[in-house]
Structures are given as C-alpha cells and as structure tokens.
Amino acid sequence: MAAGLASKWSLVGRSLLGGLNNNLSSLLGTSNGITCSHSLSLQQRTFIQMRTVLKVVDNSGAKKVMCIQALKGKKGARLGDTIIASVKEAHPNGKVKKGKVVYGVVVRAAMQRGRCDGSEVKFDDNAVVLVDKQGQPIGTRVFGPVPHELRKKKHVKILTLAGHIA
C-alpha cells in the first residue's frame, strides 16, 4: 500500500514540480498542500460539447439538460453561445418535460474566458438558460450570477431577468 501511494504521489509531484527529486516524506510533508490546491487545475476544462450535462438556472421546469449540439457549426460552446439540449431531469409540473429537445444559452462555463481589460472570468459549474427558437427565455427568473458578455451576444433579456451580473 505504501509503495502504491508513493508511486502515485511521485507521479503527481513530478508533473507539478517539473521532475524534481521527490521522496515520500517530502511529498506527504510539505508539497501535499500544493498537490491538493492544484487538483482543479489538473482537470481538463474544455468547451461545452456533445453529451455535456448542464444545470438549468431558470424556472422553466427543467433541472438538468444534456447538450446535443453547439449551434453555428462550432466544436463546442462557450459563454453566451446557443446549444441544442435534451432535458434529462425536470420538475413534475413545469413548462418543460423530460425528454423534450430545447434550445439553451450558456450562462456559466467552467472554462475560463479572457476579458478586454485583461481579467478572466471562470465559474464553478456549467449552467444554461432555456430559450425558444427566437431567443426569448422560457422561464421568468434566472438564478445565480451571469456574465455581462451576454450583452455582446444579444441576450439582453436574460441579463434583465438575472439577479446578479458578474
């Protein structure tokens, strides 16, 4: 068990510290905090692509949707892009039922995006607001923060429904 733990930690330590000489005592002692704090940065943060499950942050009745396709022929969707999704979980008496194919606008993405002023915006989860074919939101409320980049993508109605603009 200790040998397996040592080999696991040494691989993580080498990838983080650039191949420095790491033994088990130094990894468990000092750099343990480093490997834990960088565990999220080791995960691959990618686009919203096919089969990505997203949280629905409006009161349309859906809880979770799965992305079927990112529109405009792109490989994936980012903040403000429109996707086609299938409803996987829904409230029993909502406007949208389970299995329905809907359009959605990505309002939160775990992939970071640079802004004009040099800062970057990144969220903890992937979230979407359901819209109709014309781009008008199905729900009447939007929960949680939404980025102001939606204004450039002509989703002003979502910004007016949102409680907090990041």
TrEMBL record:
<dbReference type="InterPro" id="IPR036853">
    <property type="entry name" value="Ribosomal_uL14_sf"/>
</dbReference>
<dbReference type="GO" id="GO:0070180">
    <property type="term" value="F:large ribosomal subunit rRNA binding"/>
</dbReference>
<keyword id="KW-0699">rRNA-binding</keyword>
<dbReference type="GO" id="GO:0005762">
    <property type="term" value="C:mitochondrial large ribosomal subunit"/>
</dbReference>
<dbReference type="Pfam" id="PF00238">
    <property type="entry name" value="Ribosomal_L14"/>
</dbReference>
<keyword id="KW-0689">Ribosomal protein</keyword>
<keyword id="KW-0687">Ribonucleoprotein</keyword>
<dbReference type="InterPro" id="IPR000218">
    <property type="entry name" value="Ribosomal_uL14"/>
</dbReference>
<dbReference type="GO" id="GO:0006412">
    <property type="term" value="P:translation"/>
</dbReference>
<comment type="similarity">
    <text>Belongs to the universal ribosomal protein uL14 family.</text>
</comment>
<protein>
    <recommendedName>
        <fullName>Ribosomal protein L14</fullName>
    </recommendedName>
</protein>
<keyword id="KW-0694">RNA-binding</keyword>
<dbReference type="InterPro" id="IPR005745">
    <property type="entry name" value="Ribosomal_uL14_bac-type"/>
</dbReference>
<dbReference type="GO" id="GO:0003735">
    <property type="term" value="F:structural constituent of ribosome"/>
</dbReference>
<dbReference type="InterPro" id="IPR019972">
    <property type="entry name" value="Ribosomal_uL14_CS"/>
</dbReference>
